[in-house]
Amino acid sequence: MILTSYCLLAYTFLPAAWKHYEHQRGLAGLPMMTHTIQGIPGDPINVGLVGSKADVLCAMHAAGWNPADPLTLRSSIEIVGSVVFGRPYRAAPVSHLYFQDRREDLAFELLEGKSAKQRNHVRFWEVLARGEEGRIVWLGAATFDRGVGLSRYTGQVTHHIAADIDAERDRLTTDLQAARVVDAVYQVSGIGPTLNGRNGERDPYYTDGEIKISRLVEGCDKRVEGAAILASPPLVRLNGAAWHIFGQMLQSDEPFDPVEDQD
């Protein structure tokens, strides 16, 4: 009886209760995970934007994030030079990931330090042409590149992400709010609570599994004083509070990666 109750609670009731799309019903049922070109699970979807492409470009510029250069031989050589010689490259390319069988539509980054070795970055895909607000909905995967190493699959130079992907999601959301280009923020379900996830390069990550969506102001010149925070269901808020505690516990326990270049 106890085992049956546990199974029903852990595998049926709670996962169903955590799923919520009341703010963007068109997202229900989507697999909130990107993939590499080889079909290997990549970075989870954890952020979203609502607005036209022009609104997205203007908002990210206002927040200080730079569009990433296309991935070419020249840009690949330039990013290696940035890392090796400590040269700035604020528009360094990002590797391609795929969502809904297509690679990212937009990518942005924000360097930490002088070179492209460490950076905040995000990829976005246009997912809904008309969401609940009658505007385009973009979903994205935001992660922090903590260092550079060799790909376990190709041997090429690649970045390795920090495990706390919720921190990067929140960083981007906060930067957009600070730029006063967001009029509302709300959450919808992503991949769900995950303690021991692995991305396409086998980097570990953990997350509360929520997607934080920022509704952008319309027009490049418009600014607002503050963003409305739309509430999530009570159980989801409880989950978020618990994962905030887990995140603090796990921040000092990220595993050592022997492949990563060490200073």
Describe this entry's structure for a reader.
This protein has 263 residues and is α+β, with helices and mostly antiparallel strands. It has one domain (19-253). Helix content is 27%, strand content 30%. It has helices spanning 2-18, 53-62, 73-85, 165-178, 234-250; strands at residues 33-35, 41-44, 47-50, 66-67, 98-99, 102-103, 106-111, 119-128, 137-150, 157-161, 182-189, 194-198, 204-207, 210-216, 228-229. The longest helix is centred in the N-terminal third of the chain and has 17 residues, at 2-18. The radius of gyration is 19 Å and the shape is globular.
Which key features would you list for this structure?
263 residues; alpha+beta; nine-stranded mixed β-sheet; two-stranded antiparallel sheet; 30% strand; globular; disordered C terminus
Short précis:
The chain is an alpha+beta fold. The protein has helices at residues 2-18, 53-62, 73-85, 165-178, 234-250, and strands at 33-35, 41-44, 47-50, 66-67, 98-99, 102-103, 106-111, 119-128, 137-150, 157-161, 182-189, 194-198, 204-207, 210-216, 228-229. Strands 3, 4, 7, 8, 9, 10, 11, 14 and 15 form a nine-stranded mixed sheet that branches. Strands 1-2 form a two-stranded antiparallel ribbon. The chain has a two-stranded antiparallel sheet with strand order 5-6.
